[in-house]
Amino acid sequence: MRSICVFAGSNDGVAPEYREQASRLGEHIARCGMRLIYGGSSFGLMGTAANAALASGGQVTGIMPTALFRREIVHEGLTEFIEVRDMHERKATMHQMADGFIALPGGIGTFEELFEVLCWAQIGLHSKPVGLLNVNGYYNPLMELIRHSVQEGFAGRMHLDLIILEEDAGALIERMCSPNGLPLQQTGDAETV
């Protein structure tokens, strides 16, 4: 894997662990020699992950629609900044450039980006790994909702298998880089979630 697209909140959240894990994620991506691709903001967990990757010698690409320049302060220290027309072009560019996706805690925008790449994987448009960094159990309610959709017959068990869930940034990247989503040192069968 050469690049990971990170979906994250433009806010920090209330718990300090959110920023700590966002920073660790950026560091791990850089130390693995991968490029971090994200929304281009200097705010929130997005900015924290980008700053940590840059501080660790990594390369960071930000992609932002012109209309967001007023609301989000553009990160001016990035390796590469790509200006696009709208959110659709932003997501298409992220998808094209990324070899995998990680969602940090975030709000509706993060959920929307996450579900789009999951939907695309579900219908076979890509086979790139999709990870959730489950800081403080943030994504537990979302996983329970997806499990509920399986139990109620609206989704298949294989849809759960599209998600790699970890509480630690290093463990998440390790699983995403392994051929089948298992820890690199592990052999045998294991559930993804």
How would you summarize this macromolecular structure in one to three sentences?
The chain is α/β, with parallel strands linked by helices and 193 residues long.
What is the count of structural domains? 1
Radius of gyration: 16 Å
Shape: globular
CATH second-level architecture? 3-Layer(aba) Sandwich
Mean pLDDT: 90
- Give the count of helical stretches: 7
User: What share of residues are in beta strands?
Assistant: 15-25%
pLDDT < 50 runs, ≥5 residues:
183-193
CATH topology: Rossmann fold
Produce the secondary structure layout.
Blueprint: E1 3-7, H1 16-31, E2 35-38, H2 44-55, E3 60-65, E4 80-84, H3 87-97, E5 101-103, H4 108-122, E6 130-133, H5 140-151, H6 157-160, E7 163-166, H7 169-177
Parallel strand pairs: 1-2, 1-5, 2-3, 3-4, 5-6, 6-7
Structure, explained:
With 193 residues, this protein is α/β, with parallel strands linked by helices. The protein has one domain: Rossmann fold, CATH 3.40.50.450. It has helices spanning 16-31, 44-55, 87-97, 108-122, 140-151, 157-160, 169-177, and strands at 3-7, 35-38, 60-65, 80-84, 101-103, 130-133, 163-166. It has a seven-stranded parallel sheet with strand order 4-3-2-1-5-6-7, sandwiched between helices. Helix 1 runs parallel beside helix 2 (44-55). The radius of gyration is 16 Å and the shape is globular. The two termini are 21 Å apart. The relative contact order is 0.16. Belongs to the LOG family. This is Cytokinin riboside 5'-monophosphate phosphoribohydrolase. Its EC number is 3.2.2.n1. InterPro entries: LOG (IPR005269), LOG_fam (IPR031100).
